[in-house]
Amino acid sequence: MGLTPSNSVTFADDNAGIKSAQVWIGIKPDKTGYTTVIVAADEVVDSIDKEQLAKLLSLKPDPEDEESQKTKKKMEETRDQLADALYQKGLALAEIESLKPDESTDASAKDVFEENYKELIKWVDAKSTKYGTLTVLRERRCGRCGTALKVLNDMIQEDSEQPKKKLYDLKIQLIEEIGWAHVSAYEKQWMHVRFPPSLPPF
To answer: Fewer beta carbons within 10 Å, N or C terminal of the chain?
Structure first.
């Protein structure tokens, strides 16, 4: 069965994915700022008919039908926008939790994070380099620092580009939480090699 004009779905706005990512720019690192990210992400998620999207993504388009191919591509873009919004929301929820690390996390807040994560893994590989940070944070908040470290190491190794400094910073945090002080010291020494300070101008 191919994709036909009768198989319709409410697509996210073309700029929805961009908006959900750019909303981080300039926000304050506090609950109000992170809530702004969550609201923006929810707007994207709510604009998409997820049930219909899943149904249409399961259909194989007619390779000789140009319109069918265009529809398939549009649906894949919508899926990516949905996944990006869920990812950004998850990061914001994790940031809100981290604001009060010494207090027990509210059970309802935990449920929101977990529900959001479970929705994300319906659409994408949450251990990929693009979304893996959220999986690392999830494993960490569940007390599985060893698993979090494994996922993070896989992300660093699989990243085709130069791995970001924040990933190595997170790696050191996990190592310290596990209690490997000697490994942490070794990694910190290598940080100066991986990310040398900028040379002063002549």
So the answer is: C
